[in-house]
Amino acid sequence: MFDRILYKRQAWQQFKERMALPIVCSVLLCAVGLICGSVWIGMMVSNKMHFMPVAFLLLCSGLGVYQMVFCYVSLKMTRTPEPLPMSDILVAIKEYWQDGILGILYQMLWIFLWSLLFFIPGIVKTFSYSMTFFVLVENPGIGVKKAMDISKILTNGHKSDLFVMNLSFCGWMILAYLTGGIGFLFLNPYMQLSFANAYNDLKRMAFQDGRLTPADFS
Fold first, then answer.
1. Is 205 exposed, middle or buried, given 0-12, 13-18 or 19+ CB atoms closer than 10 A?
2. Distance, CA of 218 to CA of 207 (rounded, Å)
3. What is the distance between the alpha carbons of residues 129 and 153, in angstroms, rounded to a whole number?
C-alpha cells in the first residue's frame, strides 16, 4: 500500500538527524539555477538568441547531474542511520554525471513527445518516469532506457498517488517562496527523501507481487 504520510514522516526524521549534506545539495541546485539563469538573461539582453538551444542543453545537463547526486544521497540516507560524508557529492558526480545528462535529456524528450498529444499525457508520463534516476543510481550501467522501463513498472497503479504526494508539498512551497527562497534549502531535501522512501516501497511491492525480480535490475 502506498503510504505518502509514512514516507514523509520518515523523510523528516531522516533529514532532521543529518541536515548538513542534503542542505549542501540544495545549495548546489540553487547555484546551478542561478548560473544558468544569469547566462540565459545575459543572452537575451545581448540579443544572442541563437545560443539559447546550447544554454538550454547546459541547463538540462546541470539539472541531470544534480538529480543523480541528490538521488544518490537520498537513497543512502533512507538506508543507513550513519552520517554521510560531504565527499559523497564528489563520488556521485564522478560516478553518475553521464547517466544524469543522458537520463534527463531522454526523459524530457519523451515527456515532450507525449505532451504533443495533449497536456494530460505529459503529466502522466512525468510521474511514470519519476523513479528513473533512483533506478540509475542503484544500478550503474543499467542504461537509461531500461531504467525508464523499470520506472514505468514501479509506478504502474501509483501515478495518481505520486501526483497527490507531489501536491501535498504545495503549502510548503508557498512558505518557501515567502522566505525569499531560503526555505527551499530545507524543502528540497524533504521532498527528495520522501520520494526516495516511496521508491524503496514501490520496489518492495513490485518484488512482492512478481512484477519485477532482482534479475530485472541487472
1. middle
2. 14
3. 9
